[in-house]
Amino acid sequence: MSKLEQPLDADELTILAERVEQLSADDAEWVNRLLQELLRARAHEGELLAGRASSGQQGRDEGAFDEQMAQVALDTAEWLKTLWEVGYMGAGNFRAQPRAAFPAIDLEDVRKSSLFARIRQGKHALPFPPPTRQGLPWHDLVEGGAQTQVVSAEIVREEDGLPMGAIIEGCSDWMVLEEDAAKQECVVQHQGKGPKFRLLQVDAGSAQLRRELPTMTRQIRLQGRGGFHSYSLEWPRDDGTTQSVALRAATWERAQSEAEHWLAITHPELYGQVRFVGSEK
């Protein structure tokens, strides 16, 4: 995609808004009207996307896909598998060394892949693997609300009785951060990343898993300049200074989503533990 075909980000739009003020009066009038119309269209697009996401509605392209799309995905997987195994030979290039152990992908994988579904719905892929439930990725647990899940769970202990980990729904990558033996409950986290959960043992092999509420609050600032609005996340550094992270968003909902994605990449151990609040600057 060429530079002219790429959508303008928040910083580029802000620069354009500032440059309008440098034009002559005659040119500034019509250029400013054109820029305002562009901003209204961008904001309207953001509202439509946010409304669709909040209502849970999905269009044909976001819901179940037809056989032709499934076949395209299978053909692509076969193409990549061939390149992986025999090595790539492009125009004027030498053959690359073949690789091995490319994962086998069939129709059921295409239909059931949660990662593929997330990408098709325009969602960011988590930069770290989510926990699994009976062998399948459990994205809803990481990204859902604070509802309580009934799960099969077992605490694995050292010889001295101290907890060394937990097995929840067949996933053995859970860490035990805190334990209250008297209440038969503990705080767990998957691989030290993502939200924390409280695990309450009900009986042998059965427990309740409830997501802990966020314990930290961070501000997302709304800024206006030249008729253009942008969002930025205020994040405190270890040295006491504050980092301002620009968020590519035209709506509050998208700003929250972008802030969550930034947090997942830069501070995965805090993902799901921060509440974002808005403020104007």
Summarize the structure in words.
This protein has about 280 residues and is of the alpha+beta class. Among the domains are: about 65-120, no CATH class; about 135-210, no CATH class; about 215-280. The protein has seven helices and twelve strands. The protein has helices spanning about 10-20, 25-55, 65-85, 105-110, 115-120, 140-145, 250-265; strands spanning about 130-135, 135, 150-155, 165-170, 170-180, 185-190, 195-205, 205-210, 215-225, 230-235, 240-245, 275-280. The strands form three sheets. The chain has a six-stranded antiparallel beta barrel. Strands 11-10-9-12 form a four-stranded mixed beta sheet. Strand 4 and strand 5 form a beta hairpin.
How would you summarize what this structure contains?
This protein is of the alpha+beta class. The protein is built from seven helices and twelve strands. The relative contact order is 0.12.
User: What is the tally of beta strands?
Assistant: 12
Distance between the termini: 35 Å
Contiguous helical run count: 7
What structural class is derived from the secondary structure elements?
alpha+beta
Our Rg estimate from Cα atoms comes to 24 Å
Largest sheet: 6 strands, antiparallel, barrel
Provide the succession of SSEs: HHHHHEEHEEEEEEEEEHE
Mean pLDDT comes to: 80
Global morphology: globular
Strand content: 25-35%
Q: Unreliable runs, pLDDT <50, ≥5 residues?
A: 89-94
Helix amount, in percent? 25-40%
**Strand order in space, largest sheet:** 3-4-5-6-7-8
